[in-house]
Amino acid sequence: MVISLFKLAYQNLQVKQLRFYIILIGVSIVIGALFASSILITGIHYSLDKGLSKLGADLLVIPKESLVNLKSALLTGEPSAFYMDAGVIDRIRRLKGVKRVSGQIFMTSATGECCVLGNSFLIGFNPEDDFTVMPWVEKKSSEPFPADGAVVGAMTQWETGDSVKFYGVPLKVWGRLERTGIGLYDNAIFFHVNKAYEMSRISQTDPSVQPLKEIDGKISGGLVQLSVGAKIPFITFSVLRDNPELKVVTTGNIQTSARQTTVAVFSGVVALIGILILSNILMINAIFSAVVNERKREIGIIRAIGATKTSIFKLILYESTLISLISGVVGMFLGGVLLKLFQRSIVFYLKLLNIPFMLPPLDFIGVMAGGAVLMALVMGISGATYPALIAVRIDPHETMKQGL
After folding, report:
1. pTM for this one?
2. Where does the pLDDT of residue 372 fall: very low under 50, low under 70, confident under 90, or very high at 90 and above?
């Protein structure tokens, strides 16, 4: 009986092709939008989580008033500059449970005619104690890192061997990072902290550039890696006890902020998809209600020749299931094609917002594809359930009399 019901449901779809195509188009568009936006949101989360894990730091130590600026810098690459005494690094290094500490100094972004085109961070660091930049150099010179060397992010325009000049200080690109998924690092130019101090000094006397702040003996923050078994609350307390003007941030808090940021960006898209899902359920409900109404006599005949109420209920749901399954598969491919066609413009727009994007793993994309098809089935079954219940209550004797 199950096979015959499926066959009958398939034949009904072939007879009423207009109804089939209306539902196919409506559900496919929703599933395509759902699948594409899910990949985008997950891709951004994946980029940020992967990038922040690459920092290799358990804690970030920064000036207390600069917390918001640091989050903006790490997550979106928004220009910021904040400073504290570089001597903090040595004090933190002496704490029990601290494995490594590396200081960095975030300078004003390099924009316009004085330096480069675009929005690139100038960051001073110390190669001797660094553990967050050098391990992720993808391409580099065969020579050791020189005093005038620079490491550029994956989203910058330079390659190894290129010569650059910032605020009168010449540098040579020694290495290039692989893409990290952090706006700050992907758009950065890293060089020795002494060169950062030199740029600051030169800018004070060079009338052709905008003067930088006096930053000798200062850094913007310290990245702290803890020893195995070290307790974050204890280290945090120890740092703040001796340096009450500082703030200690865990990378976990930054990841939470990253998720909140991306959800806010796509909240409008998610709300629109939710409305479209509801409207499609109502559309399917209306279409199948009309189908049941026009097929009362047919349903009455089927009941008269021995079909049970359960069989009638299944027949309606089988039709909606077949339509939804086909629509889900078509919508999934539609979303993939649209994402591919508009990948350049979407990724370009995200770059304008300094939001990193990398595709999530293929196995996760497969899970999302299956989820998209499942959502199509839920929409179809939800929309057809009420009409199926109405069909079950049709009296075969009454419909036969009306047909005479």
Report:
1. 0.55
2. confident
